[in-house]
Write a structure and sequence with these properties.
Oligomer: single chain
Mean pLDDT: 93
Order of helices and strands: EEHEHEE
Helix content: 10-25%
Structural class: alpha+beta
Shape: globular
Radius of gyration: 13 Å
Strand content: 15-25%
């Protein structure tokens, strides 16, 4: 089984976490199932960037992103070469993923835009 390691985030996961992840499930689903309340304003439909994460390890284990995800990621706060939308990045069969949830997110719905 794949492990998902979440680096500490001041409000969502202050101590970090090591989670057992189900292959084929999205990173977002894994986080939510383990009570890590990552934002997902579009309900995981690849229509916003609120669930943006940075892959610190294991990026190469993920299926490459599609054009719709890439277009949205261009708008994400703190974009890095190993950024992914957690709703689109599926847990691989084996390995270890290490993610960082960025300090900020852009949520136009919450910000009344």
């Amino acid at each position: 089984m794949t492990q998902l390691i979440v680096l500490p985030h001041a409000t969502l996961c202050p101590d970090g976490a090591v989670l057992e992840a189900t292959p084929g499930e999205s990173i977002c689903e894994t986080l939510l199932r383990n009570d890590i309340a990552i934002e997902h304003a579009c309900e995981m439909s690849c229509a916003c960037t609120t669930c943006h994460v940075v892959m610190r390890e294991g990026f190469e284990l993920l299926v490459p992103s599609e054009e719709a995800e890439d277009d949205l990621l261009d708008k994400a706060w703190g974009l890095e070469p190993t950024s992914r939308l957690s709703c689109q990045a599926l847990i691989p069969k084996d390995g270890e993923l290490v993610i960082e949830i960025p300090k900020y997110t852009i949520n136009h719905a919450r910000e009344n835009h």
